[in-house]
Design brief:
The complex is a heterotrimer. Helix content of chain A is 74%, strand content 0%. By secondary structure, chain A is mostly helical. By secondary structure, chain B is mainly alpha-helical. Chain B is built from three helices and no strands. In chain B, α2 packs antiparallel against α3. Chain B is elongated, with a radius of gyration of 17 Å. The model of chain B has no long low-confidence stretch (mean pLDDT 85). Helices cover 71% and strands 0% of the residues of chain C. The chains are: A mainly alpha, B mainly alpha, C mainly alpha. Chains in contact: A-B, A-C.
């Protein structure tokens, strides 16, 4: 019962903040709503018994990505006039698309059989750590991910540097 | 416990909200934010599937971790591009960035 | 047993059960009580810390400090803080024109909230004398303190004040940069202890505290944490000679009070985290015989660390932003990275059956070796630069 109440609370936070992100005119406010949506998703992870990912969500999304976005908003502020509509001409088509896609997905999801989750047997953090460095696990994708991050870092610095 | 379908529907709704923002917003930074929303919806799905069907392995969590890596890389490069465009063209409105149109 | 805190909580629980409440309600009430107690600890500490800080800074600068306020302020002006608190609470809440109302009002609440939330995982004694023993303990602290950054951003941006905005820009430069060496040094501890849970990290320091085994990460962590809590040598966000008061310029009354409190709470929290990670937390002599001594030990260590923070904060001058960032990116980050790589290999090579003291000794030697290499490199670089400079001088002459 408590879990369902919490699910509705966090779900409402996520969806409400998400809708606000795409509709609010002030881009700085949109970024703040985005941070709230990230926080709600972290709450969902706690409900799903993945505390490590809740912390990663706070750390990566709020601490790094959110701050980067706010920083970019601050650097480019004053470009968008708030009187203008924040949407382009195809906004109604986009809305139609989104609603149709949602309808299809909800229809498909409702066909799924009910699943009852098992109790967690392991400390998932230990398992996850092992999986990332074990030869039979995901060591190669893990190393590739680090290469991707370094490449993105260098690329971002090269693109954004003032000449 | 909450049924799996609830999580899936929530993630689907979040994904569609992000999709709408991606297609309809004019500000490039807002478009990036919408992409972040969609990536978050995907991560929620992955973690929910992990918890409900595969909780004895970590595959779902590993996938979610890679989503984080890709999201971080994407936002860093994306914002760098936006700032570079802003420097040269002094705009972040996507419709005004149409140099290829001549 | 003799564990007073556990006994008291068991007694309260029995009392509540005696009134005929059902089991879930009792556990709920117990959770609320313990959350209240944990949130109360830092606030109470800080009320006296503010007085102690003002006294200490006055003595170091040859002043008297608070000694009497109006008619009576107790011995040594100890009531001064309460008078200040009452003044702040009753002050008019000024809202400048043109602020972005909602972020402007949320920012102080957010910063204060995050300052308190960190205390939930700090172990105050053996066993259950902790808010909650998360298996991601230290990572939880890191995650929340990195999320605190956008409180500063919100305050700085929504204030409609250019000094506040400059402070917000600086916060991104300073806080994100210093998060990296901080995290890298915490990683070393997590790796050697083999767990992120705060109680496990304390348990791993049973015979040797990590300050002895890992002095280099300890020093790096301390420096980076001082930067994170905005202490004097790194006090860029509210450099009063340049930025008035930084991101809090436009705040008054209790909103300013919340920033003020949060800053002190964060500084004490750094002491608590440092004590847990490197000074062995509640470990100390006779802690097995009387678990309540553990609580005494950790508070003694927190006091020690807070005094160290005070001493640094009061005596050091403020650095320039380029010096601070250069120091971080060209010295601390490479050092922390090298340290992490070398320690991870050495720690893997040590025999798993080795005693705690052997392991600590080997790690200490490795640390000293890394420090010597770093020192030599810095010294060589400095000498080279000086030669270049002297050569240029000769050309000019």
């Amino acid at each position: 019962m408590t879990q369902q109440i919490l699910f509705f609370v966090f779900g409402a936070i996520v969806l409400g903040a998400g809708v606000a992100v795409v509709t609010v005119r002030n881009i700085f406010h949109a970024a703040l709503w985005l941070l709230l949506a990230f926080f709600g998703v972290a709450g969902l992870y706690v409900l799903l018994e993945a505390p490590f990912f809740a912390a990663v969500q706070l750390f990566v999304y709020m601490g790094a990505i959110g701050v980067l976005i706010i920083f970019a908003v601050m650097l480019t502020q004053g470009i968008m006039k708030e009187k203008q509509l924040p949407f382009n001409e195809q906004w109604w088509m986009a809305g139609l698309m989104a609603v149709l896609l949602l309808a299809v997905m909800v229809y498909v999801i409702r066909q799924l059989p009910a699943v009852t989750p098992q109790a967690l047997q392991w400390d998932s953090i230990d398992l996850l750590g092992m999986a990332f460095v074990h030869p039979q696990g995901f060591v190669l994708p893990f190393e590739l991910a680090s290469v991707l991050l370094v490449a993105a870092l260098l690329g971002a610095v090269t693109i954004a540097r003032e000449r | 416990m909450v049924p799996l379908q609830w999580y899936l529907i929530l993630a689907a709704a979040l994904f569609c909200v992000g999709l709408y923002g991606l297609l309809a917003r004019r500000n490039a930074i807002a478009v990036l934010m919408s992409i972040e929303l969609m990536l978050n919806a995907v991560s929620v799905n992955l973690i929910a599937f992990w918890r409900y069907t595969e909780s004895n392995t970590v595959t779902g969590q590993v996938f979610a971790a890679f989503v984080y890596v890709v999201a971080a890389a994407e936002v860093a490069v994306g914002l760098a591009i936006i700032i570079a465009i802003w420097r040269t063209k002094n705009t972040v409105v996507l419709e005004e960035i149409d140099l290829l149109k001549g | 047993m003799g564990d007073a805190i556990v006994n008291v909580s068991a007694w309260i629980e029995g009392l509540l059960l005696g009134t005929g409440l059902s089991e879930p309600w009792v556990s709920f009430i117990m959770t609320v009580i313990s959350a209240f107690v944990i949130a109360f600890i830092p606030v109470v500490i800080v009320i006296f810390l503010v007085w102690g800080y003002r006294k200490a800074s006055a003595r170091m600068q040859g002043r008297l400090g608070p000694n009497s306020s109006g008619t009576w302020a107790g011995p040594g002006g100890i009531v001064q803080t309460f008078a200040d608190a009452i003044k702040m609470l009753t002050k008019e809440d000024i809202r400048p024109a043109g602020v972005d109302v909602i972020p402007y009002n949320i920012a102080p609440i957010l910063i204060f909230f995050i300052a308190l939330v960190v205390w939930a995982v700090i172990p105050f004694g053996p066993g259950t004398v902790i808010g909650v023993d998360l298996n991601i303990g230290i990572f939880y602290i890191m995650a929340f303190s990195s999320a605190a950054l956008f409180g500063v951003l919100m305050a700085g941006w929504s204030s409609n004040n250019k000094y506040a905005t400059v402070s917000a820009f600086r916060s991104v430069a300073l806080l994100i940069s210093y998060e990296i060496p901080q995290l890298l040094s915490v990683l070393v501890v997590v790796m050697v202890a083999g767990s992120m849970s705060m109680q496990d990290i304390v348990g791993a320091q049973r015979s040797v505290m990590y300050l002895i085994a890992l002095p280099l990460p300890a020093v790096i962590f301390l420096i980076a944490s001082l930067a994170e809590v905005n202490a004097r040598p790194f006090e860029l966000l509210e450099a009063e000679s340049e930025l008035v008061a930084g991101y809090q310029t436009e705040y008054s009354g209790m909103k300013f009070g919340m920033y003020y409190l949060a800053e002190f709470i964060n500084s004490v929290a750094v002491g608590a985290i440092f004590s847990t990670l490197f000074l062995g937390g509640w470990q100390g002599p006779f802690v097995d015989a009387a678990p309540i001594l553990g609580t005494v030990w950790i508070f003694a260590k927190i006091t020690l660390m807070t005094m160290l923070w005070m001493f640094i904060q009061i005596t050091l001058p403020r650095l320039r932003i380029d010096q601070i960032l250069n120091f971080n990116w060209k010295f601390l980050v490479p050092l922390a990275l090298a340290n992490l790589c070398v320690i991870s290999i050495v720690n893997k090579l040590i025999n798993a059956q080795a005693s705690d003291w052997t392991r600590a000794g080997i790690l200490l030697l490795t640390n000293i070796a890394i420090a010597l290499v770093a020192w030599t490199l810095v010294a060589l670089g400095g000498r080279q630069k000086r030669r270049q400079y002297e050569a240029e001088l000769e050309v000019v002459a």
